[in-house]
C-alpha cells in the first residue's frame, strides 16, 4: 500500500501496487510540476491561486504562488497513465494543505 499525493488542491490516492516488473515494481510518486517555480510565479495571480485552492484550508499568499495546483500536471492524468502499475484503493479529497 502507498499514497500518491496530489498538489495543494487536487485529490490524493491510496494505492496498492501491482508488482509490475517492467516498472521495477514502482510507480509515479505524484503528478510532478508542469512548469518551473519561476514560471508559476510569473504566470499566476493570487486570484488564480485562490480559485485553484477554493475549499482547501491553506495559505493563499504570494509566497506559495509557485505551489498553486495549476503549476502541476493533472494527478488524474498521471493515475490514468499508470493503471497497469497500481490499483486505487481509496481517493482522498484535499481539505488542508500546509506549505511554507
DSSP strand tally: 3
Unreliable parts: none
Query: Sheet with the most strands?
Result: 3 strands, antiparallel
Mean pLDDT: 93
Task: Give the topology.
Blueprint: E1 2-4, E2 12-17, H1 37-43, H2 46-52, H3 75-81, E3 86-92
Antiparallel strand pairs: 1-2, 2-3
Structure commentary:
With 100 residues, this protein is of the alpha+beta class. The chain has one domain (2-92). Helices cover 21% and strands 16% of the residues. It is built from 3 helices and 3 strands; from the N terminus they run ββαααβ. It has helices spanning 37-43, 46-52, 75-81, and strands spanning 2-4, 12-17, 86-92. The chain has a 3-stranded antiparallel sheet with strand order 1-2-3, with no helix packed on it. Strand 1 and strand 2 (12-17) form a beta hairpin. It is elongated, with a radius of gyration of 15 Å.
Write a concise synopsis of the structure shown.
This protein is α+β, with helices and mostly antiparallel strands.
Label this structure with key terms:
3 helices; 16% strand; 100 residues; 3-stranded antiparallel β-sheet; 3 strands; single chain; alpha+beta
